[in-house]
Amino acid sequence: MRIIRAKDYDHMSRQAANIISAQVILKPDCVLGLATGSSPIGTYRQLIEWYKKGDIDFERVRTVNLDEYVGLGCSDEQSYTRFMRRNLFDSINIDLANTHIPNGKNPDAKSECDRYDSVIRTLGGIDLQLLGLGPNGHIGFNEPGECFQKGTHMVALSSETISANKRFFEAESDVPRFAYTMGICDIMQAQRVVMVVSGAAKADIVKAAFFGPITPKVPASVLQLHRDFTLVADEDALSMI
Ligand code: GLP
Predict the structure, then answer these.
(1) Backbone phi, psi, residue 83, to 5°
(2) Single pTM value for the model
(3) CA distance 215 to 128
(4) How far separated are the first and last CA of the chain, in Å rounded?
(5) Span from the CA of 37 to the centroid of ligand 1 (angstroms)
(6) Cα torsion for 199, 200, 201, 203, to the nearest 10°?
(7) 36 Cβ closer than 6 Å to some ligand 1 atom
(8) CB of 181 shorter than 6 A to ligand 1
(9) Which of 41, 83, 138, 166 to mutate to test the pocket of ligand 1 (most atoms within 8 A of CB)?
């Protein structure tokens, strides 16, 4: 595990964007695993800026997103499909046909999870997976539990996650109760994993995840076992370690 200490959110975002842009430059048809939430927005903003300057080319890049709310799709403003278009895809030269996100509109969980796992397999796995960190230690939507879930699965969101994510919705009751998420095995099989974390509110969970025991009760703790994991965090998020 490597830790990059950033001064603040903007610095964290530039550091993470540097790692991603190096990946794209070295392997122009790489598979990027992408994340949502407020943590990676600055990273995407920086990538867009470098794309506009002509420094990065996304024409051949393929992407797989971590997760999507069950019931939401591209017509829903709060869906992760719309999030990705708004915060990255609509501002770079990526071919939308090369971008993959679980289909929250598919009510058949088994067929959707099988389909998504086969998408990841067909792409040949993930070269670089970008992650945020949920306040309860979740990655993607892998919530704390009794075991690590391997592949894409449907998850019942914890009350903590619903409460943390209600800021993106008009009311807490609008937050979907279920999501499709990539599994821990999908994430662990990525060649490289980069996590962005900022703010004092995440300091306790950063300590528990990366300086505590490896346990499914703190899903991100499994990343301690990844062979190429980089935590890019600002000083506030690292204040407890
Ligand atoms: C959501 C996403 C996660 C993300 C988490 C943290 O629950 N499913 O992938 O890491 O939010 O979000 P934020 O970065 O806004 O704290």
Answers:
(1) -55, -50
(2) 0.97
(3) 23
(4) 14
(5) 4
(6) 110
(7) yes
(8) no
(9) 138
Q: What is the CA angle 24-95-85, rounded to 5?
A: 90
- Alpha carbon separation from 176 to 137, 157, 161 (Å, rounded): 19, 8, 11
Question: Ligand 1: does its nearest atom lie under 6 Å from the Cβ of 140?
Answer: yes
Nearest to 102 by CA among 28, 23, 155: 155
- The verdict on the CB of residue 219 being under 6 Å from ligand 1 is no
103-151 per-position pLDDT tens digit:
999 999 999 999 999 999 999 999 999 999 999 999 999 999 999 999 9
Write the DSSP string, 13-59. Answer: HHHHHHHHHHHHHH-TT-EEEE--SSTTHHHHHHHHHHHHTTS---T
State pLDDT tens for residues 46-105. 999 999 999 999 999 999 999 999 999 999 999 999 999 999 999 999 999 999 999 999
- Residue 85, pLDDT score: 98
List residues with catalytic annotation: 67, 136, 138, 143
3-state helix, strand, coil in the chain (%, to 5): 40, 20, 40
pLDDT of residue 227: 97
How many Cα atoms sit within 13 Å of 204 on the Cβ side? 3
Please name the residue that has the structure tokens 């964007």: 17
CA-closest candidate to residue 17, choices 228, 25, 67, 206: 25
**Atom nearest to 67 CA in ligand 1:** 8
